[in-house]
Amino acid sequence: MTSKNRAALIIIDDSKILLVHRFKNGEEYYVFPGGGIEEGESVEDAATREAKEETGLDVTISKKIWENKNNDRIEYYFLVDKFSGELATEIGGPEQKTQSADNVYRLEWVVIDKIKDLKLLPEEIKLKLLKNYQSGSLV
Length: 139
Hints:
Helices cover about 20% and strands about 45% of the residues. The chain has a single domain (about 1-135), classed as Nucleoside Triphosphate Pyrophosphohydrolase (Alpha-Beta Complex), CATH 3.90.79. The protein is α+β, with helices and mostly antiparallel strands. It contains 3 helices and 9 strands.
């Protein structure tokens, strides 16, 4: 069983960040890769599992950098220290099964400076990331 809580990843390669570009019911937005925490699973284990499922990448987490309350759930954001493997050509996991013309998931590397112009959710994390990046640090 999956809880409402979510583990998400901040995966950076040079000056680019890996995001999930969503098209859902006529809306377009971006989110960080991640997903629900399964019963009995640690938050860190959920983050590494979700990275593999959604992106195809094996990740090593550096540390938890943010915790965000979003409605009735808590979202945990982890900075990825290292990653290996080949980025999936399409998103995997349960999201792959639910894709349709009205529900699309695409993995995209985005230049960090450009996220200010995107609808990246949650907005609070986007603003923290931009502020930290502009001051020369991500955390």
